[in-house]
Amino acid sequence: MFGRYNDTFRYESGDILVETERIGGLLTYLRRCEGQTFERLLVSETAEIVINPVEPVNLPKEITDYLLMEFSPMLIEPGVTQTVYLKFPVEVGVFLEAARDIEVLDVFGLGTQKYTLYGPPTSGVIARWYRSAVYTEVPTVEPFREGVMELSIQNASHEWAEVSCAVFDSVDMKIYYNNVVTTTARMKIITPTMAETDFTDAPLRPDMTRSIELYTVRKIPVINRGYLMEWGLS
Fold first, then answer.
1. Residue 132: CA atoms inside 13 Å, Cβ hemisphere, count?
2. Which residues, 6+ apart, have CB-to-CB distance to 219 below 8 Å?
3. Which of 109, 94, 97, 102 is nearest to 30 (CA)?
């Protein structure tokens, strides 16, 4: 399903149907996903339709920029760096790309989205919540529902640290894909209760394509700043 399309195409698998067709000279875009339907008429002479995975914080509506990954607790020795793999939720973006501009046409995804509060009620942040097991090798994922996050955790403190969650600002997220959706991230533990997280702009494998980012299309100024987890690591 991911890729670039000119004029008409059709993709159907499981609970997903995405297609364009010509009706009376107009191009019609239709998407069905888990019983929900979205349809638009497209008036264009040159635009391509681009479908790729996007930052998973848009459904069922735009609530937050933050993603909270919860996983099995890990106790990390001072000075040690460990790379693990997590599964993260995938959302699909559909774009119209012409020579002069690019526009978001549709965003959809499989499953139910859950949100949680990280930090105290008065100053914490709402985050998209997702739980994953911890893997030492790239796990098998369900297409269009899950991706693989490579997470490098560095304990830069002088104490043992227990970690069971990581919070990210999705504005910094860089997603790559081929037959699997991936992202790479870092977590630097400053103290046993505080850490910095950010994403790295690197594919998990050399033959992957980088996704178009929603924040770029929406012309939202972005400064790669990462996120400071100041309300605990579990």
1. 27
2. none
3. 94
DSSP state of 112: -
Cβ atoms of 92 and 54 within 8 Å: the answer is yes
CA distance 61 to 55: 13
Mean per-residue pLDDT, 88-104: 92
Please tell me the number of Cα atoms within 13 Å of 14 on its side-chain side: 11
Burial of 64 (0-12, 13-18, 19+ CB in 10 A): middle
Question: Can you tell me the distance from the alpha carbon of 67 to that of 56, in angstroms, rounded to the nearest whole number?
Answer: 8
**Running DSSP on this structure, what letter comes out for residue 214?**
H
Pairing of strands 209-210, 16-23: unpaired
Contact predicate 41/27, CB 8 Å: yes
Q: Which residues pair with 148 in a beta bridge?
A: 87, 182
CB distance 50 to 1 below 8 Å: no
pTM for this one?
0.92
Residue 172 per-residue DSSP state: G
Q: What is the pLDDT of residues 54-94, one digit of tens each?
A: 999 999 988 999 999 999 999 999 999 999 999 999 999 99
Highest mean pLDDT among 26-35, 100-109, 181-190, 198-207 belongs to 181-190
Residue 59: what residue type? L
Mark residue 111 as left, alpha or beta (left: phi above 0; alpha: psi -120 to 50; beta: remaining): left
